[in-house]
Amino acid sequence: MAVRARWASPSRGPRSPWLHVTQAAAALAAGMGVGRFVFTPILPLMHAQAGLSAGAGADLATANYTGYLAGALAGIAAPALLRSPFLLRGSLIALTGSLAAMPATHSTAVWIVLRLLAGAASALIFVIAVSSLHGHLREQPAHLSGWGFGGVGAGIALSGLLVLALRSAADWRAAWWASAALTAALTLASWHLRPEPAPAAGAEPGRAAAPAAAPGARTHRWFGVLLASYTLEGIGYIVAGTFLVAAIEQGSPGWIGSGAWVLVGLAAVPSSPLWARLGQRRSRPDVLFVALVVQAAGIALPALVGGVAAALASALLFGATFIGVSTLALATGAHLRFPRSVALLTAGYSVGQILGPLVVTPLLRHGYHQALLLAAAVVLAAAAAAALLRIGFPHHMPTARYDAPVRGSVPAGATADPDTGGA
């Protein structure tokens, strides 16, 4: 009855959780799949047609990730923002406008400002949509939230198909305009997404903060290793997420790069629920280690082996792991019941994404292969940290489902544990 009440509305009647998943997926497809990652397949077009240098491309990527960090920090500093439907809609509109404005200039400085704005809007869309999934699906099976995260992959695939279709018939300007139109359509599909519900009026503030303090104190060493691993993943993955298409197109026919990016998106759609299931059946640190090693292999492959088959295999391995790694890392942080684990992990990941393009910029004078090899090495370092996480890991702590945000209280459904200070 509790679940039914959660989805009942006096004015609209019972609400299907799948409708909520679809709306959240559309928001994530707009904010992340298109708003952040359409730059990857458009980047080679801007190099060839707009005179954008490799270094300037890295600057645009860094601006976008800096804006993303700013938006994420705003959500952390003011949690009430996560419950605002007006901010969600305003961010979707701002994102659409920033994409549509890219073709209006050839100024790198203006492009940097637009990508900064797009990054902030993407982050706000992401935190609101994910918090909405967490808040409304807390009592539902975990794979539902996983399919919501799959919206990121769907947006990547759609935007990649769009650029692939346009590259032979139009120029880089048309690609940006088309991506803005796609974002507008996804905005309409997610317009009525309900943000995270407000905390219960009768909650006791003092009681809410107490239970998580003791577990956090006892699990800080594992959480510190997890944070280091996830930050390193942010550095390595974003280099591939930004430059993979351009790197593939250096040694393959032009359509292969955009086609590989479509494959990245298609592989990403089911990856989150699949990795989430594996994380429930096996040790999460072990599964995280495997996912990171597979991702490192996918990133290094086009730098080590040429040809179409290697490019497509790289796209498949990368797409099948990068969202799954995030799913597993957030699940592990929630399992440890470390206070504000989602916020802290997201901040570390964002810092890594800013550092990634900056670290590899000196290598771009010689093409993208050295940058991909360095990114693969950093992801392997993240895997090594995940292997260390396995040592003495408290597997038998009461598990808070990863789709329940940790805000200093025992999540719904967690059982009491006298050893960790559970209520």
TrEMBL record:
Superkingdom as given in the UniProt entry: Bacteria
Compartmental location: Cell membrane
Keywords: Membrane, Transmembrane, Transmembrane helix
Pfam families: MFS_4
Presence of the UniProt keyword Transmembrane helix in the record: yes
Topology of the protein relative to the lipid bilayer: Multi-pass membrane protein
InterPro entries, per the entry: MFS_4 (IPR010645), MFS_dom (IPR020846), MFS_trans_sf (IPR036259)
Coiled coil: none
Signal peptide: none
UniProt domain Major facilitator superfamily (MFS) profile: residue ranges: 19-394
SUPFAM superfamilies found in the cross-reference section: MFS general substrate transporter
Membrane-spanning residues: 21-43, 63-81, 110-134, 146-168, 225-248, 254-275, 287-305, 311-330, 342-360, 372-393
Broad class of the protein's primary localization: membrane
PANTHER family linked: PTHR23537, SUGAR TRANSPORTER
Protein name: YbfB/YjiJ family MFS transporter
Organism, as annotated: Actinacidiphila acididurans
Taxonomic classification: Bacteria, Bacillati, Actinomycetota, Actinomycetes, Kitasatosporales
